[in-house]
């Protein structure tokens, strides 16, 4: 069973792509790299702020881009494990097909 105390507030890096993929404030990632790992997380600085976001392949194969932040819990973010996605703050399981959609405890888009 997953509980809020059993998930770290700061999860280990899932995977990283070179910052050279950031061009003029945009990220360009070949889809085959996303399909190979199902989830890629990024962390970068925008001015004085740290920004974390994901590119995630949903179970139906569609790609979602999202901030690593929750509309309810805020910037604590999410954690991906073999059994699924969870909110780091409250340990709520995330329906993987709902990633990137507004409402409830789901990633912000």
Task: Please give a structural write-up.
This protein has one helix spanning 31-37; strands spanning 22-23, 26-27, 39-46, 49-57, 63-67, 78-81, 84-87, 93-94. With 109 residues, it is mainly beta. The strands form 3 sheets. The chain has a 3-stranded antiparallel β-sheet. A hairpin with a 2-residue loop joins β6 and β7 (84-87).
Indicate the topology.
Blueprint: E1 22-23, E2 26-27, H1 31-37, E3 39-46, E4 49-57, E5 63-67, E6 78-81, E7 84-87, E8 93-94
Antiparallel strand pairs: 1-2, 3-4, 4-5, 6-7, 7-8
What is the number of E strands? Answer: 8
Order of helices and strands: EEHEEEEEE
Main sheet attributes: strand count, strand direction, barrel closure: 3 strands, antiparallel
Helix-strand makeup class: mainly beta
- Radius of gyration, taken over Cα atoms and rounded to an integer in Å: 14 Å
The overall average pLDDT, rounded, is 74
Outline type: globular
Helical stretch tally: 1
Domains, number: 1
Q: What proportion of the residues form beta strands (DSSP E)?
A: 25-35%
């Amino acid at each position: 069973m997953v509980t809020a105390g059993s998930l770290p507030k700061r999860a280990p890096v899932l995977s990283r792509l070179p910052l050279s993929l950031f061009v003029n404030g945009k990220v360009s990632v070949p889809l085959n790299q996303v399909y190979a790992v199902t989830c890629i997380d990024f962390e970068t600085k925008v001015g004085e702020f740290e920004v974390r976001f994901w590119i995630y392949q949903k179970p139906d194969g569609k790609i979602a881009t999202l901030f690593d932040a929750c509309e309810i819990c805020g910037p604590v973010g999410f954690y991906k494990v073999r059994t699924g996605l969870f909110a780091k703050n409250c340990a709520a399981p995330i329906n993987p097909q709902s990633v990137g959609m507004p409402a409830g405890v789901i990633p912000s888009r």
